[in-house]
Design brief:
The chain is mainly α. It contains 4 helices and no strands. Helix content is 60%, strand content 0%.
Length: 83
């Protein structure tokens, strides 16, 4: 249940904090989501299973899940340099 624990922790910290710490936790969460997308593609895992504890209606999660059947993973606009 580690992915669920991490997801809940980061969401809670984003709500609690402000300023730099809030931006840091938002970045941390988004980075983990993007890396999960890369990892799922690399190891041929089901992306929806990997992101099962995330809200599919959040823009970044929806953008990653939209690539579920794509031949390659394209990170969201802000994270293109990771590719």
């Amino acid at each position: 249940y580690f992915p669920r624990l991490m997801s809940n922790f980061l969401k809670r910290k984003i709500k609690q904090e402000s300023g730099f710490l809030r931006r840091f936790f938002e970045f941390e969460r988004e980075m983990r989501l993007v890396i999960t997308g890369f990892r799922a593609r690399l190891f041929h895992k089901d992306l929806s299973a990997e992101l099962q504890y995330e809200d599919a209606e959040e823009p970044i999660v929806a953008q990653i899940l939209a690539q579920k059947d794509a031949p390659s993973f394209e990170p969201p606009f802000d994270y293109e340099e990771l590719r």
